[in-house]
Protein: Biopolymer transporter Tol
Organism: Lentzea cavernae
Amino acid sequence: MEPERTPDGHFVIINGRRWRATDPEIPPEPAARLRSLLMAARRGVGAALRAQDAEAERAARARVHLAKTALGERGTPWWEQTAGERRQRWQDGLEELEAE
């Protein structure tokens, strides 16, 4: 089930809280890869916290930030970017995440 969206489509509403929506122009396959990498990074944060490894936590949180930025959920709002800027954002993020 899809979460509720604001009328402009820029945000989703989850448990009464507004969160920036993923860029809808990211093609399905790269978007799925980015979401998978985001979830792996979030699992890395949890593992680092359980291990009390501050360095690993910083690295995992940096990967979460990179994935969320690539998805358009952080950084310059995707609705303020050109199609080329949006494409470059997710391609660069995906390339960097997959290189690590």
Observations:
- The chain has one domain: 25-99.
- The first strand starts at residue 4 and ends at 5.
- The CA atoms of residues 29 and 84 lie 18 Å apart.
- Residues 28-51 form the longest helix (24 residues).
